Amino acid sequence: MTIPRRISRRHVFRTAAGAIATVAMPYLSRAADRPIITHGVQSGDVGTDGGVVWARADRPSQMMVEVATTESFRDCRALPPIAALPESDFTAKMLVENLPAGQDVFYRVRFRDLSHPDILSEAITGRFRTAPADRRDVSFVWGGDVAGQGWGINPDDGGMVTFATMRKHAPDFFLHSGDTIYADGIISSEVKLRDDKLWRNLTIPEKAKVAETLDEFRAAHRYNLLDENLRAFNAEVPIFVQWDDHEVTNNWSPSKELPEAYKVRDIHLLAARAARAFHEMYPMRESIVEPGRVYRALGYGPHLDVFMLDERSYRGPNGPNLQASYGPDCYFLGPDQLHWLKCGLLNSRATWKVIASDMPLSLIVYDDAANKRGSEAFAQGDGPPRGRELEIADLLRFIRNAGVTNTVWLTADVHYAAAHFYNPDKAQFQEFTPFWEFVAGPLNAGTFGPNELDNTFGPEVRFVKAAGVDKPNLPPSANMQFFGHVRIDGATGQMTVTLRDRADVALWSTTLDPA
User: Fold this and answer.
1) What pTM value is reported for the model?
2) d(Cα 109, Cα 120) in Å, to the nearest integer?
3) Are the beta carbons of 271 and 248 closer than 8 angstroms?
4) Residue 471 gets which letter from DSSP?
5) DSSP type of residue 329
6) Angle at Cα 359 formed by Cα 353 and Cα 364, nearest 5°?
7) Tell me: the pLDDT tens digits for 284-294?
8) Is 32 helix (H, G, I), strand (E, B) or coil?
9) pLDDT per residue over 394-428, tens digit each?
10) What's the gap between Cα 28 and its chain centre?
11) Angle between helices 267-281 and 214-224 in degrees, nearest 10
12) DSSP string, 368-424
């Protein structure tokens, strides 16, 4: 399989005229041996002064990056090269710093062969916008769930169309709510639809089975990047990414009993391999305090702080979770992450505090869906807070008592779109101020839902668009793929949230006034 490429020689760095004779001749004479940028470029975790740039080569090489504030690259700055080696699957990422705030930044990436330093790849360009230092308009999109339930890249359907649709909005960034891959999902060449037509996937050998080895987890991420829509989106829109369960396997927790398809029987080993692949494949700022940490706070100007949560790495076992008192079996965020979140919310001076949760707060997700047993999510069923709900009760009480205002929860996971208003007057637990939660997805996976609601925190459904219980796992071609779009008005601070489908139809919208 070859990846369609749209690279022209216009993208190759131009050198001084006097250097062409000495550099260009060996470069051209060995054109067939040049390194290849295999899966496009990405940027991510953008702040006021910079962001992370990512790319992958096809061999041991050095990633060379230039950045500029003009598309012509007349003012470009060359950064020190960094190695891309087999140990990282030939990926490389670089934190680009000391950039002006609120600025369109253009970057240009190429690789230099380690064995033949005079052999260079063609260049690929990308762009991102640094966060503003003043009160400007901010726009971003969010969603989750990619290449799940056997629905991969179908060229006959236009590929991963939702990414092309989101790209048209030119958002400042993309908040990926998790299930970035389906490591436990097989991608077959053909899937028979209900009308007897065929869905035809692009395939790779590694997606013919569940991912168990490090290389198989890496390949699952690389598979998604075969899509032209996703690569074009990545080159223009920086990503803020978190993970959920399918980066490892369905509903994974420390108590996960792996199905027979797995030869590797240790869930902790699978999770470690999956985590390494995840961090290799995304442009994330890395934690020195805890290498491999997913949860982090990202500020995007005076109006917005985003708190990216990790609801997998520190959770206790899935199960009934009906304990009345808090302990390790109740952990979902875990004590350290919960403390970090409280401190971050308390110290935030942003108008809006977006809490990016990879799972909804009050939708019931069974660990054993067939028999409706056990809990995979926060929600434990109607009634007062129990088990994992104790963390949410503690957090919501803290937000109220500390006077933290303007919190909004954004999530995905359940494969449909919804808007939930949390009203303490309708709740079993009432020690909180009202807030909104918005659900968006899938981006390119099966559509399901709606799920059962848990009344513990008083969610009111203001909007829902789902497959219906009689039509589970609708394909992307059914146009039931959803993403969310957020706009914050720089002058007023108002936040407008719109839920859209992959055809870019606005399904539902609301405007929130800051307190």
Assistant:
1) 0.93
2) 11
3) yes
4) S
5) G
6) 130
7) 999 999 999 99
8) helix
9) 999 999 999 999 999 999 999 999 999 999 999 99
10) 39
11) 40
12) ETTTTEEESSS---SSS--TTHHHHHHHHHHHHHHT---EEEEE--SSSEEEEEE-G
